[in-house]
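Budget justification aside, the reviewers requested a transparent look at the raw inputs and outputs of the sequence design task funded under Objective 1. We therefore reproduce one unedited record. The lines immediately below are the structure tokens for a 154-residue chain.
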């Protein structure tokens, strides 16, 4: 069986990794970029912060990603320094992540539609059953690609 997400099957378009850093856990999204608005999610996950650097390195090699798109709030500067130990600085791009967690919380329900009586609750009143930092990482890549928010190479 052939895995359609295997790196050898990727087209020549760019592959980016979104990274939402945190103190306890981090969101990671690997995204293939075809155009400014056409993206394909290849991989998403939430990992413990202690495992984030090694996981990023593995995914970067596996998918031959060109850049890491990093949220610029909370713990960004500390993470940027750590990323520079494994990546050239020009491969790290900071993107404004303000309100991305709220946006990801709303999008969570697109990926995990509520079942039963929970469908009756407005989105704002629903509580996600699991962490959605990976969706924040995806949103960071989308913002970078669309140029919606400031993106600055480090």
């Amino acid at each position: 069986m052939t895995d359609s997400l295997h790196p050898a099957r990727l087209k020549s378009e760019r592959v980016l990794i979104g990274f939402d850093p945190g103190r306890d856990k981090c969101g990671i999204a690997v995204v293939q970029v075809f155009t400014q608005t056409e993206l394909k999610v290849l991989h998403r996950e939430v990992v413990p912060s202690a495992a984030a650097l090694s996981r990023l390195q593995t995914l970067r090699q596996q998918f031959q990603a060109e850049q890491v798109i990093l949220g610029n709030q909370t713990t960004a500067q500390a993470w940027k320094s750590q990323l520079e130990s494994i990546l050239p600085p020009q491969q790290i791009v900071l993107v404004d992540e303000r309100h991305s967690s709220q946006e990801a919380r709303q999008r969570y329900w697109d990926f995990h539609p509520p079942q039963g009586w929970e469908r009756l609750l407005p989105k704002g009143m629903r509580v996600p059953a699991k962490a959605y930092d990976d969706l924040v990482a995806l949103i960071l890549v989308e913002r970078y690609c669309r140029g919606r928010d400031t993106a600055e190479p480090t």
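The beta strands are 14-20, 25-33, 39-48, 67-71, 92-95, 151-153. The mean pLDDT is 85. Computational costs for records of this kind are itemized in the attached budget.
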